Amino acid sequence: MKRFLTFFLIILTAILLVGCDDTPKNKNKYTQHVFYLEEAFSIMPVIDIRVPNQYLTKAKKEQLENDLNKIVLNLDKKFNIQNRGDGYKTELMKVNENAGIAPVKVSEEVIKILKKAIEAAELSICESCDNKALFDPTIAVVWDLWNFTNNYYDELEDNRTNPPADEDIQAALQLVDFRKIIIDEENSTVFLAEKGMKIDLGGIVKGYAADKVKEYLLSQGVTKAIIDIGGNIHTIGSGVANDGKDRSWRLGLQTPFAGPFNTLPSIFGTYIIDDLTIVTSGIYERYIKDEDGNDYHHILDPRTGYPFDNNVVAVSIITTNSMWADALSTSIFALGLDEGMRKIESMDGVEAVFVVKNGDSYEVYISSGAKDNFIYNEKMNDYKYAFKGIYKGE
Questions:
Q1: Which of 26, 209, 252, 300 is deepest in the core (most CB within 10 A)?
Q2: 3-state secondary structure the chain
Q3: Residue 236, strand partner residues
Q4: Whether the predicted pLDDT of 126 surpasses 50
């Protein structure tokens, strides 16, 4: 739901791994190996590792690639709810098909990730709006009405489509309530209490996949890597500078709406990290445009069934666990700048970068723990951007 944007790269790792190239200057002689994995979750995962020369034999490289593909494809066979074209029924497909009918036996991983999604939903509960969760994994039934996967706007084609009928949205909203997900851990079952309900964990499972890939690579002795699972970026260790010394990874954060049809700089800032993950939710990678020129982004408000209208353009979450960062990026986006940043400041080991719209201008805010790691691109000042620093609250 969050990002079939597959990134979509909200983080431009391929271009911006500054100081990590394999050149004659690199005295440690690290070699870069990039694995382009098979399609999973409707995206193509990319794994970029750095190892000392002679570390990878041809057989070892083939083993790594095969094992990495198994990790993401096995998860795809459990969590994908999109039409795979092969008639295969994933565990979540079976849960959704049996909504209101019967519990479905699922694997431990499905329960684990579903519980984390529910935790994120509880985090996003809005007390001022009838205790409604602003992040809800059962919003899928409404998301399907919008059909962002097939209707997303392509500026080159100028393909336009109108939003679904309001009466259809309101009817679907009656099926949105994460509290009606019934998990029986003893019997390993999941049951959706009402017929027609539907859950989609496609966003959070990409973060989980990144965590699993990292765990596997560490078990294989890989100590430096960039993992990109549909824009969920996870790092192992640090990068390598041209002089052969360790150097933190420098990941560029994509400027919203930057592209070939405008002159916007490709990145509005760079984040310096070691052994952490960074995940972004934004409104600019997957949206539809109607015949009147109105944009509708893909992050839907469970209260209305329409896109959130809180002036947030993008939120990047930085922490240790990519699954949690994945869940947080949407729930914090939904809460908005003020309440979302308060939540971030209350958490240990979690930082955030916000881009918000203010009239026809954009403002960039960071959490307090990000001040030594975020580098703002000063060129953005020429494009109605302003870096506001640490958010102090309203």
A1: 209
A2: CCCCCCCCCCECHHHHCCCCCCCCCCCCCEEEEEEECCCECCECCEEEEEEECCCCCHHHHHHHHHHHHHHHHHHHHHHCCCCCCCCCCCHHHHHHHCCCCCCEECCHHHHHHHHHHHHHHHHCEEHHHCCEECCCHHHHHHHHHHCHHHHCCCCCCCCCCCCCCHHHHHHHHCCCCHHHEEEECCCCEEEECCCCCCCCCHHHHHHHHHHHHHHHHHHCCCCCEEEEECCEEEEECCEECCCCCEECEEEEEECCCCCCCCCCCCEEEEEEECCCEEEEEECCCCEEECCCCCEEECCECCCCCCECCCCEEEEEEEECCHHHHHHHHHHHHHHHHHHHHHHHHCCCCCEEEEEEEECCEEEEEECHHHCCCEEECHHHHHHCEEEEEECCCC
A3: 225
A4: yes
CB 242 within 8 A of CB 19: yes
- Positive or negative torsion for Cα 225, 229, 231, 232: negative
How many other CB atoms are found less than 10 A from the CB of residue 38?
A: 13
d(CA 89, CA 91): 7
Amino acid at position 318, single letter:
I
> What average pLDDT score do residues 157-168 get?
93
Structure tokens at 228: 């990109």
Q: Which domains does the chain have, with CATH numbers?
A: 1-394 (3.10.520.10)
Residues of the chain above pLDDT 70, percent: 92
* Among candidate residues 103, 180, 75, the one with its CA nearest the CA of residue 136: 180
Picking from 115, 123, 172, the residue whose alpha carbon sits closest to that of residue 302 is 172
- 37, 13 contact by CB (below 8 A): no
Max distance between CA atoms of the chain, in angstroms, equals 65
pLDDT tens, 266-316?
A: 999 999 999 999 999 999 877 899 999 999 999 999 999 999 999 999 999
